[in-house]
Specification:
alpha+beta; FAD/NAD(P)-binding domain; 3 domains; single chain; binds flavin-adenine dinucleotide; 5-stranded antiparallel beta sheet; Glutaredoxin
């Protein structure tokens, strides 16, 4: 089996949300990619995540798969962030809500998509080592077989082997709490809602099958010494609630902490890190999947262009330059959000104050931009406020029909939109690489957090949905931007 995929362009280690998104984007650009996953099936036992935020929905919309998630999930106008007043339903996005959907469903939907894209997935195979040379990377699997690729992406989660073998530092902050998380059955009625005590947060909730109860319960001591068991869960619940609710038939017992770390490099030669392999943090605020998906769509098209020889290697350095600071900022938010879940009357008072503050218009907008991921701004220099920000999904008029901007991003190619007189912008010798659209837009340009901005006469949208050039009455700077994002002038 493995011989058939020997010598591929890219190997992605880990078929979690990040790895699957990366593989999909690479494959959509025509790059030869293989995923290696140690789990033997795509069925995930135990759902860590319970959903994701607006920008992640927008990214799935850019690839034409958002309806698959919306059909199965439940939308909430208030993202769970411990702030009841943080309503985002008026935010300028097609998806002004958080989607509640367990991670096993999120991964099933992505796995179905990558199957449709005919991406080979080596399941039940664990990567045990890797070594790179000038022309590629050799990956060793647990059965001793090897696999060679031009590039390797470690999307192999928080304990990333790829990060460790590459020797990339993972600096940050140690855990200040630990909690047990489990999916079990119970024999006694369970209390509704979240409870705080002198340890921190606890909650039990019935899952959608009507049988399984998901339990989260903070431990008294920080304990990372052993793999948690059902007995540990029973003991913790009894101490907190005075009963263990008769928990049994556990399909999953795990532990999480608020350890916060970020890889010092996202790239070592031909090896990249993405998702939890590059950053870990408290689950408070539900940021993890979105950060991984944003890493994936930032790296995928850049790597594809380098693999195809369209762009020079240095394009790949923009992955770290853009994603590291954006994620560092999100990690600061998760540290603050986890601090608000700490026990004690003072923190409880602080939570109330923050909740009240979040109802103030400016504070609400600031926090909502951060939590939803809609305020991400890559530093691409000075200019129009759109530069480096995500393109809003406007309803354009193209050839007399209404067409959402994001529908042009499905094939992971840059899009150049001309809002001036038809034909007044052309992609020149990049015509093969860029989708040029003459369009009209008569509404206001409203960006999350910033509000209304002036209408541009042209935009170059990168395949990740971020704006790489803005025209304001002229095409000044367009050739440079095309050269930067689409590769030097093809001859
Ligand atoms: C309690 C809890 C609640 C959370 N809630 C949310 C939430 O509500 N919203 C949210 O967005 N995020 C949440 N998260 C975070 C989210 O679960 C992660 O950020 C997300 O799963 C990261 O995706 P990933 O693909 O980067 O890594 P992972 O999901 O960890 O995937 C890595 C994959 O790599 C595979 N792998 C690892 N090593 C190897 C190897 N050597 N060889 C082959 N395969 C390998 C693994 O089997 C796995 O499938 C939560 C996390 C926790 C702990």
């Amino acid at each position: 089996m493995i011989e058939e995929v020997d010598g591929v362009d890219v190997v992605v280690v880990g078929a979690g949300p990040t790895g699957m998104m990366l593989a999909a984007d690479l494959s959509l650009t025509g790059v030869d990619v293989v995923l290696v996953e140690r789990r033997s099936t795509s069925d995930l036992v135990g759902s860590r995540a319970g959903g994701f935020h607006s920008r992640t929905l927008e990214i799935f919309d850019q690839r034409g798969i958002v309806d698959r998630f919306l059909r199965e999930g439940k939308t909430h106008p208030v993202p769970y962030a411990g702030m009841a007043s943080l309503d985002i339903s008026d935010f300028p996005t097609r998806h002004p809500y958080t989607l509640g959907l367990w991670q096993n469903h999120i991964e099933r939907i992505l796995a179905t998509w990558i199957e449709e894209l005919n991406i080979p997935v080596e399941r039940g195979r664990e990567v045990t080592g890797m070594a790179q040379d000038d022309s590629g990377v050799e990956v060793t699997l647990d059965d001793g077989q090897t696999l060679r690729a031009k590039y390797l992406i470690g999307a192999d989660g928080g304990r990333s082997l790829i990060r460790r073998v590459a020797g990339i530092q993972f600096a940050g902050w140690e855990a200040s709490m630990s909690a047990l998380i489990a999916e079990v059955e119970v024999t006694e009625p369970t209390p509704v809602g979240i409870k705080y005590d002198d340890r921190g947060l606890h909650g039990l909730s019935l899952m959608e099958d009507g049988r399984t109860t998901r339990v989260v319960t903070t431990e008294r001591e920080l304990d990372n010494s052993n793999e948690p068991t059902l007995d540990d869960l029973r003991a913790n619940l009894s101490e907190v609630y005075g009963t263990d609710f008769g928990v049994h038939n556990a399909t999953w017992v795990s532990r999480f902490t608020d350890t916060t770390r970020q890889a010092a490099e996202y790239r070592l030669g031909r090896v990249f890190l993405a998702g939890d392999a590059a950053h870990i943090h408290s689950p408070a605020g539900g940021q993890g999947i979105g950060l991984g998906i944003q890493d994936a769509v930032n790296l995928g098209w850049k790597l594809a262009q380098v693999v195809k020889g369209d762009s020079p290697d240095r394009l790949l350095d923009t992955y770290y330059a853009e994603r590291h600071p954006a994620t560092a900022r999100a990690l600061q938010y998760t540290m603050a959000a986890s601090a608000l879940q700490r026990p004690g009357p003072r923190i409880s008072a602080l939570r109330d104050q923050v909740d009240w503050l979040a109802s103030l218009p400016d504070v609400r907008i600031h926090l909502a931009g951060l939590i939803t991921g809609l305020d991400v701004h890559y530093d691409l220099g000075t200019g129009h406020p759109l530069l480096g920000r995500r393109m809003p999904d406007l309803d354009l008029i193209v050839g007399g029909s209404h067409v959402p901007v994001y529908s042009f991003l499905r094939d992971v190619r840059p899009v150049l939109i001309n809002f001036a007189a038809a034909g007044s912008i052309d992609a020149g010798c990049w015509a093969e690489r860029v989708h040029l659209v003459d369009a009209e837009y008569r509404g206001a340009w409203v960006l999350p957090v910033l509000g209304q901005v002036s209408a541009p006469t042209g935009v170059l949208i990168r395949p990740d949905g971020h704006v790489g050039w803005v025209g304001e009455g002229t095409t000044s700077g367009l050739v440079d931007a095309l050269g930067l994002w689409c590769g030097p002038q093809p001859t």
